[in-house]
Amino acid sequence: MDQQPTGACMVCGKETKNRCSKCAGAGIDLFFCSPEHQKLVWSMHRFFCGPGKANPFRFPPLSPDEVEAALEGLDMRVDPNNGAHATLRQMLSDSKPALGLDAEDVINLFSSYETMPAGLSMQQLHACRLHSARRRLREADQTPGTIYVEPPLATLTSLAIHALVADVDASWRTPLLHRFSILVALVSGPSSPQRFRCLDYAIRKTTEFIYFGTRPIQ
């Protein structure tokens, strides 16, 4: 952490000069009053920390397990409540005319991308991640005694999809997604009185940002 302008801790709201130095290098101030509070949410913040990830906010590539689950479930329905794309294969094949890629190729591209490949979309990456989670949930449902916990990145992806629209400027989208990532980290971590206190603050501040923050449109 470096010592720079004052701001409210993302986790508890305490006024502090301590900010994430890597994110500051990316052009965004994310304040944490102590290493302990940054560590409290590191399980999520690590995915979006530093240049190339923090500003603008960039979702990470698919993990090996997500790739495996997506490939296994290519012919499952992406969303049982939405018939626009019946299966993940059909959704990803929308890119085939422009790129000449099969659905399997698209998934493998999403496993190692640094910037979004031309002709592909963040919506397709989100679909792969959520579809992987649904695939694992279905497997757990079919295995007696198995309890499935949705991966935090899948939870964050769902929040991003339902709370954001395509034409919202990155200057509003990026700080909101960082707040969402803090929320998800606090919710998904082990229970403790400190975590509950911080979660209460994070919920209030995220709600305030959504309703009262500046929301420029491109």
UniProtKB/TrEMBL annotation:
Classification via SUPFAM superfamilies: HIT/MYND zinc finger-like
UniProt key word Zinc-finger: yes
A Pfam family this chain is assigned to: zf-MYND
Keyword terms of this UniProt record: Metal-binding, Zinc, Zinc-finger
Domain MYND-type: residue ranges: 9-49
Keyword S-adenosyl-L-methionine: no
MF term (GO), any: zinc ion binding
Protein name per its UniProtKB record: BY PROTMAP: gi|342320007|gb|EGU11951.1| Peptide synthetase NRPS5-4-3 [Rhodotorula glutinis ATCC 204091]
